[in-house]
Structure formats: C-alpha cells, structure tokens
Request: fold
Amino acid sequence: MEAKPERHTAGIRVVTPFRGMFAVRDQLMDELYTWLDARGLTYGPTFFRLHVVAMEADMDIEVGVVLDKPVDGDTRVIRGILPAGDYAFLKYVNHGRRANGTLIDWIRAQNLPMDVVENPAGDRFACRYEAYLTDPRSERMKTKWQIELAIRLQGQQA
Reply:
C-alpha cells in the first residue's frame, strides 16, 4: 500500500466493447504520443485506466500520461487527474488477468475496502489503472511489458 498525491494527466477516454478493448488501447496510445510529441511535452509513464468495468457490455477506458503540470486539451485529448489517496499496487509482466484477481484477493484479505461502486451496469472505480513501466514505443512485444496495477482504496486520503 502506498499513498499517492494528486497527479495531473492528459488522456483520451472512450467507451468500447470489452472484446476490442486492447486494440483500441494500442491505437489510443499511438494517438496520444503523437499529440504529446507535437507539443514537445515531457511526461511520465503511460497508464491505461478503467473507469467502468462491465465485461459483458461496454467499457469506459482511458489511455493517458502523468504530467508535471496541467495542460489544455482539445476535442480529443482531455485534461484529468489521478486522485490522491492510498493505493494497493502489484507489479507484473505481460498479461494482467491473473494480476487483477491476485491484487483484489490481497486487498480483501487485508480487509481493505476498494474505492469502487459495484452494480449490474458495471463497476465504477474511483481510480483503477495500469501504469506501463516499460515504454510501449521502445518495446513493441507486449509479453515483455512491465506493468504496475493500482487500485485506490476507499476512504484513504493522502
């Protein structure tokens, strides 16, 4: 568990079916890098944020980067915030299907409530994201990506 301060972001947020989510993620990453590079902005690791998780319906997803200060967006790129608070983290390589369950099981075993509203229309996370510690532009093989999964805990303010 680790306390994180509020962090400024720039990202692209879309609603997409679960089945095509990862192809959309990769396209959004390329689009976001092009937007950032055209403005000469420096940024931290790329993150993939799931705002609403609904495996049998549409997912509300965002690809973004952490910035030192807020920037103006445009019609496609939005300005955002990763909220402050305590987060549970798990680092892994490649696929996160098992990582997600492992982290959630650990959080529950510690009796720590996640900051999520669970409902039939989809789970709405206050903040659940995957930070790509390996730059996807320099390592194109996804099986080698080092990723950090983070889930914000409920009622835990930094």
Summary: The chain has a mean pLDDT of 87. The beta strands are 2-4, 7-17, 46-53, 58-67, 78-82, 85-93, 116-117, 123-125, 128-132, 146-152. The CA atoms of residues 1 and 66 lie 20 Å apart.
